[in-house]
Amino acid sequence: MSVYTNYDNRLGATKKVLYQAQGERRAIQQELVDCSSAIALCDTELDTLQKTMIFLQNVSVAARTLAKERIEEVVSSALKYVYGAEYALEIIINSPKSGPEADFYVAKTINGTKVLTTPTMSNGGGIVDIVSAAVKFALLELLNCDGIICLDEPFKQISKEYIADAGKLLEYMCTSSGRQLIFVTHNDVLANMCGAIQKFKLVGGYSEVIRN
Fold it and tell me: Which of 43, 94, 105, 128 fits a disulfide with 119 by CB distance 3.0 to 4.6 angstroms?
């Protein structure tokens, strides 16, 4: 009888270790999914900046100067609204033999000293969200494009302390530009700032509308 009891104890201990390992595996898998989503989102925002650089490279000198100044103005205002007066956007255009090249930098003034960093290196990724959204509005204005603007998880990387101001920024940009905005978000703070909300849930691998 003691042999069976010992066996049961060992089997129970083995199961406990197995369940714990399975739980850790699921947590790691979820972490990988979250990291992949964050990387994909970052790639999308970087694509916006890269396309803006190409736009600045392909217009005339006069148009380039006007566009540069307007983008800097719009994005700097957005950064100041969310993160504070010490932030601004600077676009530096170089003209090598191969053609003009545009680089984006976030300028932060600390005790009278200006520090330049790339958007992706500033504030844990939240800066690039603000820069990307503001650049889209600025480009649409420069190109005289009317219509609706759609954003997918626009402020996913912004920390909780800034998310409300980021939402107010979106609201202001829509109102001032006369544009309607449709965006996808998992953030309740942003969702509750919208004029209309449509919720979805995942059922069997498909999105299903939640009926109120």
Answer: 128
